[in-house]
């Protein structure tokens, strides 16, 4: 019985302690800057080097490029850029290899959708995902 | 004597005490288990096969998903294997960060075990307390690596991020806090008469059994074998720290409990020393070629994960991808003794014995 009583004392002491839970979703969850959430894509920065596609372990990035519309300028610009969030594991490797930081991580993590097709995010959606962008990349 | 008919009972694949998808087919005679057959593979993703098509850096996020309660040790074992094969030097600072991350992970993993084990055998509150403390660790690791469970933090030759500002101080503050909480856990659980009655003398096996079944980790040390790879074959910088390897003699579920509880204290000791010795200056990534292409050859390395000996074997043919990759996953080996332990036991002891082994299904199935 001594052991039981000791245990109860511990539980009682904990009743007055500070709460460990958050009022999510009423209050946003505090996350550190490095947190890896859904990517933000800057089409104007992308040089269509394909490094992100090559490093992605789950092959969830597809992109196409086109010639620069200005004939004076060399290089290619991005035409379409899609990430399939059904299989993206938010591993951070694409943002790590991107030489121009065209693709960066944000702290947004809410990825619930009503249909599977909606997990297929295109260039425009990724470009508009511009809140809570990670500072360090 | 009244005899009842034998009956086949499926425990799982969806059963709260398996913490994953694991099925146990038990043949029972009344309350007594005659035979138990584990059925595994529900979570099999073929990590080893997938790895044959992946570059070494790409394999690291996959290892996060094997033993998902202690992803840092998995990260380490693959990086360590490639580094050994290529003969790479890892900067000192990176090693300290790795050790701190791994030891924090070990405590977090044991906390999950502590909480869920007690939940399985009927005590709800320790689970909530354990997860509160685990949350503190997860937050620390989140600040360091950017993820709560699937860290993908280590790289061949070092780590991805340096410690953020003030992180080391937060770890320093965490150590006395955790020590105090551990004392509280002992007050709450260790002396509890009901708990002692449930675990003492249950699921006992001998040193010889443990060795024959190739058990490792706390499952081995609870029988009195003093074997911890951090001491036996010091990897990383573990030879710089002063810590003990807790062992128990009785080999029952209570001994395993005591070993794991004591291991958390030892991890805190290591953390304390690592925080003191942490070099502020230095690189976090060694001299690594841009494309990681280990020479032709084979390598096997092994380290101590919270669940036992985790090993990584790589056969390389000089390409960017491994020719063959194999993980020795401790949960899989530790699980093999389960049918023997369950035979002749009361049905109510099933969860006590299964929980005591501490398996993670992601690791069992690979
Ligand atoms: S985070 Fe990882 S899985 Fe997702 S798109 Fe980038 S590289 Fe691919
Ligand atoms: S790595 Fe960066 S610059 Fe290269 S294609 Fe991907 S997003 Fe564009």
TrEMBL record, chain A:
<feature type="binding site">
    <location>
        <position position="88"/>
    </location>
    <ligand>
        <name>[4Fe-4S] cluster 2</name>
    </ligand>
</feature>
<dbReference type="InterPro" id="IPR010226">
    <property type="entry name" value="NADH_quinone_OxRdtase_chainI"/>
</dbReference>
<keyword id="KW-1003">Cell membrane</keyword>
<dbReference type="GO" id="GO:0050136">
    <property type="term" value="F:NADH dehydrogenase (quinone) (non-electrogenic) activity"/>
</dbReference>
<dbReference type="GO" id="GO:0005886">
    <property type="term" value="C:plasma membrane"/>
</dbReference>
<keyword id="KW-0830">Ubiquinone</keyword>
<keyword id="KW-0874">Quinone</keyword>
<feature type="binding site">
    <location>
        <position position="46"/>
    </location>
    <ligand>
        <name>[4Fe-4S] cluster 1</name>
    </ligand>
</feature>
<keyword id="KW-0004">4Fe-4S</keyword>
<dbReference type="InterPro" id="IPR017896">
    <property type="entry name" value="4Fe4S_Fe-S-bd"/>
</dbReference>
<keyword id="KW-1278">Translocase</keyword>
<keyword id="KW-0411">Iron-sulfur</keyword>
<keyword id="KW-0520">NAD</keyword>
<comment type="subunit">
    <text>NDH-1 is composed of 14 different subunits. Subunits NuoA, H, J, K, L, M, N constitute the membrane sector of the complex.</text>
</comment>
<dbReference type="Pfam" id="PF12838">
    <property type="entry name" value="Fer4_7"/>
</dbReference>
<feature type="binding site">
    <location>
        <position position="49"/>
    </location>
    <ligand>
        <name>[4Fe-4S] cluster 1</name>
    </ligand>
</feature>
<comment type="function">
    <text>NDH-1 shuttles electrons from NADH, via FMN and iron-sulfur (Fe-S) centers, to quinones in the respiratory chain. The immediate electron acceptor for the enzyme in this species is believed to be ubiquinone. Couples the redox reaction to proton translocation (for every two electrons transferred, four hydrogen ions are translocated across the cytoplasmic membrane), and thus conserves the redox energy in a proton gradient.</text>
</comment>
<feature type="domain" description="4Fe-4S ferredoxin-type">
    <location>
        <begin position="79"/>
        <end position="108"/>
    </location>
</feature>
<feature type="binding site">
    <location>
        <position position="94"/>
    </location>
    <ligand>
        <name>[4Fe-4S] cluster 2</name>
    </ligand>
</feature>
<keyword id="KW-0472">Membrane</keyword>
<feature type="binding site">
    <location>
        <position position="91"/>
    </location>
    <ligand>
        <name>[4Fe-4S] cluster 2</name>
    </ligand>
</feature>
<comment type="similarity">
    <text>Belongs to the complex I 23 kDa subunit family.</text>
</comment>
Automatic annotation (TrEMBL), chain B:
<comment type="subunit">
    <text>NDH-1 is composed of 14 different subunits. Subunits NuoB, C, D, E, F, and G constitute the peripheral sector of the complex.</text>
</comment>
<comment type="similarity">
    <text>Belongs to the complex I 49 kDa subunit family.</text>
</comment>
<keyword id="KW-0520">NAD</keyword>
<dbReference type="Pfam" id="PF00346">
    <property type="entry name" value="Complex1_49kDa"/>
</dbReference>
<keyword id="KW-0813">Transport</keyword>
<keyword id="KW-0874">Quinone</keyword>
<keyword id="KW-0175">Coiled coil</keyword>
<dbReference type="GO" id="GO:0050136">
    <property type="term" value="F:NADH dehydrogenase (quinone) (non-electrogenic) activity"/>
</dbReference>
<comment type="function">
    <text>NDH-1 shuttles electrons from NADH, via FMN and iron-sulfur (Fe-S) centers, to quinones in the respiratory chain. The immediate electron acceptor for the enzyme in this species is believed to be a menaquinone. Couples the redox reaction to proton translocation (for every two electrons transferred, four hydrogen ions are translocated across the cytoplasmic membrane), and thus conserves the redox energy in a proton gradient.</text>
</comment>
<dbReference type="GO" id="GO:0048038">
    <property type="term" value="F:quinone binding"/>
</dbReference>
<keyword id="KW-0472">Membrane</keyword>
<keyword id="KW-1278">Translocase</keyword>
<dbReference type="InterPro" id="IPR022885">
    <property type="entry name" value="NDH1_su_D/H"/>
</dbReference>
<feature type="domain" description="NADH-quinone oxidoreductase subunit D">
    <location>
        <begin position="292"/>
        <end position="365"/>
    </location>
</feature>
<dbReference type="InterPro" id="IPR001135">
    <property type="entry name" value="NADH_Q_OxRdtase_suD"/>
</dbReference>
<feature type="domain" description="NADH-quinone oxidoreductase subunit D">
    <location>
        <begin position="120"/>
        <end position="291"/>
    </location>
</feature>
<dbReference type="GO" id="GO:0051287">
    <property type="term" value="F:NAD binding"/>
</dbReference>
<keyword id="KW-1003">Cell membrane</keyword>
<feature type="coiled-coil region">
    <location>
        <begin position="254"/>
        <end position="281"/>
    </location>
</feature>
<protein>
    <recommendedName>
        <fullName>NADH-quinone oxidoreductase subunit D</fullName>
        <ecNumber>7.1.1.-</ecNumber>
    </recommendedName>
</protein>
<dbReference type="GO" id="GO:0005886">
    <property type="term" value="C:plasma membrane"/>
</dbReference>
<dbReference type="InterPro" id="IPR029014">
    <property type="entry name" value="NiFe-Hase_large"/>
</dbReference>
């Amino acid at each position: 019985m001594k052991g039981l009583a000791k245990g109860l004392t511990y539980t009682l002491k904990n009743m007055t302690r500070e709460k460990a839970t958050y009022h999510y979703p009423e209050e946003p969850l505090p996350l550190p800057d490095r947190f890896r959430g859904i990517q933000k894509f800057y089409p104007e920065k992308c040089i269509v080097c394909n490094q992100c596609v090559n490093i992605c372990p789950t092959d969830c990035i597809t992109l196409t490029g086109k010639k620069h519309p200005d004939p004076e300028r060399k290089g290619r610009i991005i035409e379409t850029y899609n990430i399939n969030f059904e299989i993206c594991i938010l591993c951070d490797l694409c943002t790590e290899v991107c030489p121009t930081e065209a693709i960066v991580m944000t702290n947004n993590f809410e990825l619930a959708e009503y249909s599977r097709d909606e997990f297929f995010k295109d260039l425009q959606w990724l470009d508009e995902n511009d809140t809570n962008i990670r500072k360090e990349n | 004597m009244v005899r009842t008919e034998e009956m086949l009972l499926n425990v799982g694949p969806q059963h709260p005490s398996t913490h994953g998808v694991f099925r146990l087919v038990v043949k029972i005679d009344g309350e007594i288990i005659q035979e138990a057959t584990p059925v595994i593979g529900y979570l099999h993703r073929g990590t080893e096969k997938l790895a044959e098509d992946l570059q070494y850096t790409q394999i690291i996020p996959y290892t996060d998903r094997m033993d998902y309660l202690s992803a840092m040790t998995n990260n380490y074992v693959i990086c360590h294997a490639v580094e050994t094969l290529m003969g790479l030097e890892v900067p000192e600072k990176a090693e300290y960060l790795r050790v701190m991350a791994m030891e924090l992970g070990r405590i977090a993993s044991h906390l999950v075990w502590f909480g869920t084990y007690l939940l399985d055998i009927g005590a709800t509150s320790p689970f909530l307390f354990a997860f509160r403390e685990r949350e503190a660790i997860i937050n620390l690791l989140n600040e360091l690596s950017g993820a709560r469970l699937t860290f993908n933090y280590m790289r061949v030759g070092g780590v991805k991020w340096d410690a953020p500002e003030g992180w080391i101080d937060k770890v320093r503050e965490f150590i006395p806090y955790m020590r105090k909480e551990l004392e509280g856990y002992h007050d709450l659980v260790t002396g509890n008469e009901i708990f002692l009655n449930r675990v003492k003398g249950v699921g006992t096996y001998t040193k010889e059994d443990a060795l024959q079944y190739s058990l490792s980790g706390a499952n081995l040390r609870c029988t009195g074998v003093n074997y911890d790879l951090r001491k036996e074959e010091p990897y990383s910088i573990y030879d710089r720290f002063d810590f003990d390897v807790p062992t128990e003699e009785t080999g029952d579920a209570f001994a395993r409990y005591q070993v794991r509880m004591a291991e958390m204290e030892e991890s805190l000791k290591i953390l304390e020393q690592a925080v003191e010795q942490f070099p502020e200056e230095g690189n976090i990534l060694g001299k690594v070629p841009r494309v990681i292409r280990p020479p032709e050859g084979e390598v096997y390395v092994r380290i101590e994960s919270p669940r036992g000996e985790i090993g990584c074997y790589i056969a390389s043919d000089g390409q960017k991808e491994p020719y063959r990759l194999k993980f020795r996953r401790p949960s899989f080996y530790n699980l093999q003794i389960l049918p023997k332990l369950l035979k002749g036991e009361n049905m109510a002891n099933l969860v006590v014995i299964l929980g005591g082994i501490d398996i993670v299904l992601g690791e069992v199935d690979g």
